[in-house]
Amino acid sequence: MKKPDSPENEKPRDPRKHNSFYEDVYEVVKLIPRGRVTSYGAIAKYLGTKMSSRMVGWALNGSHFSTEKIPAHRVINRNGMLTGKAHFATPTRMQELLEKEKIKVKDDVVVDFQKLFWDPAVELKID
DNA sequence: GCATTGACGAAGG
DNA sequence: CCCTTCGCCAATG
């Protein structure tokens, strides 16, 4: 069963020099402004691997092992649904964190998700 | 080393 | 409009 004790645990593998994928994900997530949210696909797109949004979720999975604060609760799927709530300390933790940031959540779905959407590929665009 | 799964997403029926 | 299938990449079994 999926039980990544520590996919990277401060020590990401370096199959190649592309191990920065996880770090990049953490960086972007940490850059998400308070009260804003983004999607896995948006981060993946920003990293260039838009097709592999799954990897973003997997990388975020390791964020719990990271000593740094990763606001993973601000990362949800393209539908605005809190698909990863089950991976938090408690299934309600994610929603509470979001509501604490004035983000309304209804039926595990972020209200006005599109309005609160924060696209790194746009906000962090190099123009 | 192959098969299955996954915090996703887009496309097809 | 809802459900199913495929794709992508990595990790686990």
Q: Strand count, sense and closure of the main sheet?
A: 2 strands, parallel
Might you state the CATH topology name?
Answer: Arc Repressor Mutant, subunit A
Share of residues in helices: 25-40%
**Unreliable residue stretches:** 1-18
Estimate nothing, just give the exact number of structural domains: 1
**Please, what is the average pLDDT?**
84
CATH level-four homologous superfamily name: Winged helix-like DNA-binding domain superfamily/Winged helix DNA-binding domain
Strand order of the largest sheet: 1-2
Number of separate helices: 6
**How would you describe the shape?**
globular
Number of strands: 4
CATH architecture: Orthogonal Bundle
Summarize the helices and strands and which ones pair or pack.
Layout: H1 20-30, E1 38-39, H2 40-47, H3 53-63, E2 75-76, H4 93-100, E3 105-106, E4 109-110, H5 113-116, H6 120-123
Parallel strand pairs: 1-2
Antiparallel strand pairs: 3-4
Helix pairs in contact: 1-3, 2-3
The chain binds a DNA duplex (13 and 13 nucleotides) through residues 1-4, 7, 15, 21, 39-41, 44, 49-61, 72, 75-79, 82-88.
